[in-house]
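User: Before I run my own analysis I want an independent prediction to cross-check against. Here's the chain; please return only the structure tokens and, at the end, one sentence I can use as a sanity check.
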Amino acid sequence: MEGTILAIAIMFPFFAGFICLGLKNSRARASLILFTSIALIALSILFLRHGAFHYTPPAEWDIVILVLDYVLLAYFLYIGIADFISIGINIRNVFTIGLVLIQGIFLALFEFSWAPYVPVEVEPIFFVDQLSIIMCLIICIIGSLICIYGIKYMEDHERHLGLERTKQPRFFFYMIMFLGAMNGLVFANSLLWLCFFWEVTTLCCYALIRHDETPEAIGCGLRALWMNLIGGAGFVFAIIYAFNRLGTLSLAEIIAAPGVPLLLLPLAFLCLATFTKSAQMPFQSWLLGAMVAPTPVSALLHSSTMVNAGVYLALRIAPAFAGTALSTGVALFGGFTFMTTAILAISQTEAKRVLAYSTIGNLGLIILCAGVNTPLAITAGITLLVFHAISKGLLFLCVGIIEHNIWSKNIEDMQGLVSKLPLITTITVAGIISMLLAPFGVLISKWAAIEATGALASYWSPLILALLVVGSAATTVFWIKWLGRFLSQVPSAKRAKMESFSPIYHAPVLLLIVGAIGLSIFVAPFYQGIICPAVGACYTPVVTTANWFFWGAIGCFVAWPIFAVLALALVVPSLVIRLKPEQIRPAYMCGENVESETAEFRSVADERTPLETGGFYLARTLGEHNLNRWFNPTALLILLILFALVVIL
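Assistant: Structure tokens:
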């Protein structure tokens, strides 16, 4: 039974992806995507009901994984060489070729010279526990909803581009295969198998980012490739050092091993892989570049798959470096990324870049929790992982729908959208509120992270806490600014009829907003039934009766009264306040208003002047050009100090 459901979770998306690659009929392809998505959602629930188990496939599969690993590296090398031939020497192809050669050479030396029989000695190959089940739920439910959403989105996308020949078979091949690779990654206990699935996600990421094949998309795809190959090289070094120190490549044995100082260097290399995969500074540019891809790709990378692989690994290995200098370094690194990306997001005018910076920052907060490394911090990290995946997936899908209505991703173009697209705007506003306000899970997780950091007995605790607080304040600024553009009203804006409802487009969005609200309301039983067992595997779980996080012996979370107040705040004004048309006066625009479709007024010399409004983005002060020249070197310095401390100690 265990082997069967594991095989379905990992192999079925690969097979379905290959079938998609050969399907030219759009209806047949859509039916396959729907069937695969529903099957994966049901399978993830089956994992939750079944509980923890472990499984080791036949030894022949080790050879298959080894061969496929080298096939992947050979393909990456081909990409680097092809880029070199087409444009000449460039930083991206030099790094791609160099990093692939480093991985290939050292992996070959390890496999065939230093430890030729290691793969068959890892027992078990797959280890399914509560943390990996939580990740599986995120991957299969949110990832599948994104794939369903992509059916309609890609039709509109290609129609807008005027493509004569569809690219959807290749697109959905990588999208669906991505889900299988992520399932393999979170269930793998062997570092060699984990490394293989890690690289498959890199392949899918590269292919999906460059999907439109514009020069910008190709360049961003190559940047994502070489930056993630840095993490791949770190993974290979972690494998070599871990085997040298412990004689095993079992992740479970490494985490449980006594004498942690012996393992700090391989754990630091795994942290490097974590930082690159989750796009922490100074590696954030690859994820920002991913915004050129179609919106389903952005949603998949940012919410349920690619970047979550990094923070999953950080939470997974956190018990192994608890109480060490590495743990403090990880907390500082994550806190610095959280603060800086929140500040940078303030100056962004493009919706997807705001969401990208928000994603990087929240992943930094999860890494901070892994570094703080107390039961409450790990609880906050896992809780934030779940709620952030739901809310961020929702927001990306909403931005995709808005983009296909106004054909712009600029926040300025979304002014007064509540009057033009009331349904999707309301959902988007609810999604932003779920990232911003209590009692939604994202903010509750931040509160828990602040409490855990404040209680940390370390000289570095005040600095980490300051990074967290400043980052949280900056987060409030960029979300509120975006909300203001949505809800603002230009004088001549006419209320539009409710936009048409598309099940393929809107159903995933509605399900995600229901999930964000529902889990926030029932966060106490969600914690007790889902989060607590994951934390309890390596830590003493937070007692619900002894923490402000909950209310009561069983857990009636304070979300109930807060949600009631929010509901009253929305309902009561609509029932009490009644504005008659004659009570509404047009805005004064420094002249005589002109009756027209656009907001205009007569100014000097009776000239008709259009009304122009805009947000305040502080681009000169908080822009990327000014701040990144300080932020990126500082992040790199923290990373170098982290490794230096590990080597010295």
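Sanity check: The beta strands are 53-55, 126-128, 592-594, 600-602, 608-610.
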